[in-house]
Amino acid sequence: MTGPVRGISWEEYADFVVVGGGVAGLTAARTAALRGLTVLTISKGGPADTATQYAQGGIAVVAESGDSVDSHVADTCEAGAGLCDAAAVRSIVAGGQSAVAELAGLGAMFDRGRDGDVSRTREGGHSTHRIIHAGGDATGAEVQRALDTEVQRALGATGSSVLFGAAALRVLTDSHGVTGVLVNSPRGLGVVHCPSLLLATGGLGQLYACSTNPAGSTADGLALALDAGAAVADLEFVQFHPTVLFTPGGRGRRPLISEAVRGEGAVLVDANGDSVTAGVHPLGDLAPRDVVSRAIAARLRALGHDHVYLDARALQGFAQRFPTVTASCLASGIDPREQLIPVAPAAHYSCGGIVTDVSGRTAVPGLLAAGEVARTGLHGANRLASNSLLEGLVVGERAGAAAVERSGLPVEVIDPAPQALPRIPRDGLQQWMTDNVSVVRDGAGLAAVAAELSTARRAVPTTITDLEDAALTITASALVLAAAARTESRGCHTRLDYPQPSSDWRRSTHIRLRDGELELLEPQLTGVR
Ligand code: SIN
């Protein structure tokens, strides 16, 4: 590292920068720190202000007996509707048992049955009881707690640190790859010089009026990766969770009613008491999420209603098994032990993301991505329930190890000029996306949103909110471009004007930014696979 950088208040060096503090980011930070790297973790919010914290269902991981990697791979590929990368699926699924054992070794406490064995539940699309959980329906909070505690210890040992309330403005690169990152922090504008950087920024739920994602899920990593020259893929596949607590006029992060509630026997009914999924799929209410969300959306259209119901009244010990769900329902005046729970689909998970290999490497040397922001090929067109914490643990660990490959490389000092970015006010953007790019879409709606997005004005972001709005605008543009191109229905992309899957479209949509314009690529041009 040489020379001072103009126009900024502070400069630092780290062997590895991690943007994001959820399961993938913390696992990577810990792995890299244990290998002796100095790691700087950057987080927009405070500790545990992550999507991981809110994950309810659990971690899908193959049991020692009565299950197999082959079966988990088959279920994942079935849910992924022909777009999973089978080799990536196998690699990540096969890494599950050791990743979970490692986490348990750090003190994560998984729920156990009376026999003392770890309890396993079933969720949509799984052919067996495979999902381990913690605190009943508070698995993510337990994963976050265990990792937060351990990462503090591991980082402390190498002089590494965590910067809260800070956002990455731009990943800096030269012809050899990553050289640093421009950061907006409470100390002002700064640059961290680094040869490797991991984007673990989570999802894009804030593109929609209602989402299970926290306020910080604003697609930041996708916009940063595109700007740095990496490709994104399959963004049109946004998974809508079928059962999100419905309250009239509710916006922003909405409480999830875990799929495990259906796994334990609750049923979906409409206002007339009729089953929503009867005759739709052999797995009924436990069909893959895209199927159930589509069935609900169709029933709502047919009846002109805005929600259906989950009937969990027959479940024994509901409040003990689902304390988080119970508390959310009671806070909205619903007692799930005695009343039907009003639910509707809401944006939950981005199945696509930054194109990476199964160790989080993008095509830009030194730029890594893991967790929801990445697209490894595990999820295809529709993520299988509880495969996300699994992916964060397995790929996070590998990405932390991959950072070692570039540690100690000299990094060129780049003039980190902030740039003008397109930006649409958030409320309007969320409404267009909710009205036109939700569980179902069509060409006319997509064209209307694309036209609105093209009116975005460019300005240099000066606050974290500006930056988030720009990331949402850029990501919405890429998502709409992909959704308009995909003239078929597959997984969680349902086109009313193209209701069937097409064999021509058994391929991914890859997008990159060239000369400031988004461009749809053929998959083989991404340089990753
Ligand atoms: C749920 O508990 O239903 C969500 C689990 C997941 O999204 O994998």
Question: Care to describe what's here?
Answer:
With 529 residues, the protein is of the alpha/beta class. It folds into three domains: 11-204 and 351-406, FAD/NAD(P)-binding domain; 248-345, Succinate dehydrogenase/fumarate reductase flavoprotein, catalytic domain (Flavocytochrome C3, Chain A, domain 1, Alpha-Beta Complex), CATH 3.90.700; 420-504, Methane Monooxygenase Hydroxylase, Chain G, domain 1, CATH 1.20.58. The chain is 31% helix and 21% strand. It contains 15 helices and 27 strands. Strands 7-3-2-11-20 form a five-stranded parallel β-sheet, with helices on both faces. Strands 21-19-13-26-27 form a five-stranded mixed β-sheet, covered by helices on one side. Strands 1-10-9-8 form a four-stranded mixed β-sheet. A hairpin with a 2-residue loop joins strand 9 and strand 10. Helix 5 crosses helix 12. Mean pLDDT is 93; it is low at 524-529. Bound molecules: succinic acid (SIN). Residues 56-57, 256, 258-260, 385-386, 388 line the site of succinic acid. Succinic acid is lined by residues 56-57, 256, 258-260, 385-386, 388.
